[in-house]
Amino acid sequence: LTGEVAQQIFAGRYGFVSQQGDGELTLSPIRVTQDGKDVTAAGYDTAKPGSCVISQTATDSRGNKTTVYLTYTFLPVGSPPWVD
């Protein structure tokens, strides 16, 4: 799961908009982290069990910020489906 794939996930599911009159919005780069370490460039090996977090922060012209965090958990092959 690379930063590029994570960006596609965000683009397909989320959109940020500003409620300020000027409509200005600054988006941080999308990050993929595993155990707090940035693995955006190297990617996360989805063939191995474990989890990673995809995040992006939006900041409006007044400095208000919001961050979306998506946690992806990968189970061993053959495990029953699981929803948290």
Q: Can you offer a commentary on this structure?
A:
With 84 residues, this protein is mainly β. It has a single domain (3-74), classed as Immunoglobulin-like (Sandwich). It contains one helix and five strands; from the N terminus they run H-E-E-E-E-E. The protein has one helix at residues 3-13, and strands at residues 25-27, 31-34, 37-38, 50-60, 65-74. Strands 1, 2, 3, 4 and 5 form a five-stranded antiparallel beta sheet that branches. 8% of the residues are buried. The mean pLDDT is 91.
- Mean pLDDT comes to 91
Q: How many strands, which pairing sense, and closed or not: the largest β-sheet?
A: 5 strands, antiparallel
What's the number of structural domains? 1
Reading off the top of the CATH hierarchy, the class is best stated as: Mainly Beta
CATH topology: Immunoglobulin-like
- Rg of Cα set: 15 Å
CATH architecture heading: Sandwich
Give the overall shape: elongated
Pairing-aware structural class of the strands and helices?
Answer: mainly beta
InterPro entries: Ig-like_fold
Q: What keywords describe this structure?
A:
single chain; 84 residues; mainly beta; Immunoglobulin-like; five-stranded antiparallel β-sheet; 1 helix; 13% helix; Ig-like_fold
In summary, what is this structure?
The protein has one helix spanning 3-13; strands spanning 25-27, 31-34, 37-38, 50-60, 65-74.
Topology, element by element:
Blueprint lengths: L2 H11 L11 E3 L3 E4 L2 E2 L11 E11 L4 E10 L10
Antiparallel strand pairs: 1-4, 2-3, 2-4, 4-5
